[in-house]
Amino acid sequence: MNSDDVPLPVVELASYIEDYLADEPEFEVDPDVATTALQLLADECGVRDLGELRDGDMTRLLLQVYPAARPDDDPNDVVNAVDLMLDFAFDTERIDEDRHGELLGELDDAETALFGTLDRPRLAENEQDLKTLYNLPDRLGPVRLPAEDELAEQARRSPLLTRARALAEAVIDGQDLATAADAAEVSETDLPTVAELASHVGFVEFDDAEDSGAEDSGAEDDEAGDADEVVPSEGPAFDEWPGGDDDEVLTVWGHALNTLLAWSLPADADRAGDETLDFTGTSAWFVPLLLTWRVGLPVGAISDMMADIATDDLPADEAGAAWRAWSAQHGDPAEVLLGRLADLGAVELDDSHEAAASVGTVARLTPLAAASLRGELVESGVDMPLLPAPEDMAATDLIDVLAHGLDGEIQAEAPVWFAAHTPLGGARALLAVAADGDAPRRADAITLVREHAGAEAEAAWQEVEDVPTLRLHARLETAALRGEDSDLGDAELAWLAVDAIAGRLGRHESDVVTAVIEHIIPAGATGPVDTMWRVDHPDTVTVLTAVGEHHSDKAVAKAARKALHKAADRAGT
Question: What pTM value is reported for the model?
Answer without folding.
Answer: 0.72
